[in-house]
Amino acid sequence: MSATTPDHVDAIVIGAGISGLAAASELAQAGCRTIVLEKSRGIGGRMATRRVGAAVCDHGAQFFTVRTRAFGATVADAQAAGAVRPWCDGFSRLADAAAALESAGDGHARWCGTRGMTDLPKRLAAGLPENLVEIRTGVRAAAVGIVAGGVMVTLEAKEGEVPRVLGARGLILSCPVPQSLDLFAAGHALGALDGAAVETLRGIDYDPCFALMLVLDRPSQVPPPGGLQFASGPISWIGDNLQKGISTVPALTLHGSGDFSRERFDADPASVTAELESLAAAWIGGATIVDRSLQRWKFAQPRVIVPAPLVSPSATPPIACCGDAFKGPRVEGAACSGQATGRWMGRLLVDGR
Fold first, then answer.
1. Residue 145 resides in a domain
2. What's 309's domain CATH number?
3. Looking at the domain assignment, is residue 71 inside a domain?
4. pTM value?
């Protein structure tokens, strides 16, 4: 079954997390018509907030920092709109689950969304001009091909449907790098890409993470300001969403460490849930768990950070991979990577008109 005739735009961005949205914002400033594709129903990627029963829980990224001027301008705009706020200046730390607490605070602000971490990407999306940028959610890219000096993105189709194709002069992939490589392979594009760039991309891998959200009948034993970071052991983070100010009822988010999550990634979810609850018993205290939800992130934390903001495996047509594995770690690194990649792509596309 052949694909439909492609729709053509200046650029396609795959992924509507903070990096992809930052890239789309820069492309819009350059006047580029852009389509952003997001496989999930909502935007934000791992800046994710979920309602569990009566509680609201952040279950991906838990906070972000502001250390660069470019990202600072984005955050200042979001703060003025009431979308983000400073949370605290650090969290209590433990060497492991049995160690004594180390005091919180280093004087550098940790920020969060006013109602949840998804508030910042939602603010970015709301600022995109509708005449230049279209965000399509619930749409999964199936393959990326290179045709006649441009890119062709084939979308996943339901059984019996004709696959839809989008064409563009440039492409930014902000999704996890292994997914980007799979898209190139599915579109038979790997042979047309720069070999050294592809090898760099193949060297990037990720830790998975289980995120367990627990709704409690009384406040937890997590100390103020509502976060615990573990240097080692099976749990890497415990966050109190009530103290954080996004939930009106007591609720915890537990993150399994990379090693813990990798070893149990395909295990029965009920057994993973029970194990994490047991490991966090001291912080749950005497509270009763009244609701729970387990999220499994396959690509939660890059294990390798490329110092450059992007890797471009193709100059003609321009293709770039960006995201939280580039420039710097976590939310701010992903945002800065997307901003730099959007500017880079915008210049190439405008110059090539």
1. yes
2. 3.50.50.60
3. no
4. 0.95
